[in-house]
Amino acid sequence: MNKKEQLAEVHNKWLKNCKCELKILATQGVPGDGNPNSEIVFIGEAPGKNEDIEGRPFVGAAGKFLNEMLADINLRREDIYITNVVKYRPPNNRDPLPKEVESCAEWLKDELEIIKPKLIIFLGRHALEHFFPNEKISQVHGKILKKKTKIGNTFFALYHPAAALYDGSMRDILIEDFKKIPRVLEKIGN
Predict the structure, then answer these.
(1) What is the pLDDT of residues 34-92, one digit of tens each?
(2) What is the pLDDT of residue 71?
(3) CB within 8 A of 55, min separation 6: which ones?
(4) Beta bridge partners of 52
(5) Residue 66, pLDDT score
(6) Cα–Cα distance, 118 to 113 (Å, whole number)
(7) Which family does it belong to (predicted)?
(8) Which helix (H) or strand (E) covers residue 189, if one does?
């Protein structure tokens, strides 16, 4: 079975078996999406309204901004894999609660174990805190983080694209941090 088939199997399993309480309120689960052979996995926080409707991550305004930043570093959505720590939309797009993150954690771990990315990029504090609970996004954005895990060893933290849409001062920071991604990939090598 190839990675695409393995991911489809994982998503089907967790769409049926995930115990996240948000499942009751959401239109549908939003599994990860993209290239299963990508060297890069982006991890966001949780689906928003558009994602809940379409069943794909990062398809709203934050997703459009993400696509623009990818184009700036000569990547396309088809080149990367993108997912969230929580697979169901929190009501009114509120922050995901720790128990919601925990209830989706095995699903995320299964995705990452199949893909085995060289680089895991956190989009926002919830993704960062899931893997590095003692770090603050304001202190580590734009920096490489190292940690030996079964799912990867090299991580990179960015502000969430939605934060830049709401706070213009963060936009330039996020764009500059994003432009570091090719150098980070080069640095970690093959």
Answers:
(1) 999 999 999 999 999 999 999 999 999 999 999 999 999 999 999 999 999 999 999 99
(2) 97
(3) 27, 28, 29, 30, 31
(4) none
(5) 96
(6) 12
(7) Belongs to the uracil-DNA glycosylase (UDG) superfamily. Type 4 (UDGa) family.
(8) none
Tokens of 13: 């399993």
Backbone angles phi, psi at 81, to 5 degrees: -120, 140
Q: The pTM is what?
A: 0.95
Selection from 68, 73, 76, 100 nearest residue 87 by Cα? 100
Distance separating alpha carbons of residues 73 and 76, to the nearest angstrom:
9
Q: Which residue has the tokens 């797009």?
A: 93
Integer angstrom CA distances of residue 123 from 37, 42, 105, 157: 20, 7, 16, 7
- In the structure, what pLDDT confidence band is assigned to residue 190 with cuts at 50, 70 and 90? low
How many other C-beta atoms lie within 10 A of the C-beta of residue 73?
A: 14
Q: List domains and CATH numbers for the chain.
A: 3-185 (3.40.470.10)
Residue with tokens 């990452």: 112
Please tell me the distance from the alpha carbon of residue 178 to that of residue 157, in angstroms, as a whole number.
Answer: 9
> Is 12 exposed, middle or buried (CB count within 10 Å of its CB: 0-12, 13-18, 19+)?
exposed
CA dist., res. 151 & res. 83, Å (int): 14
What are the tokens at 41? 């996995």
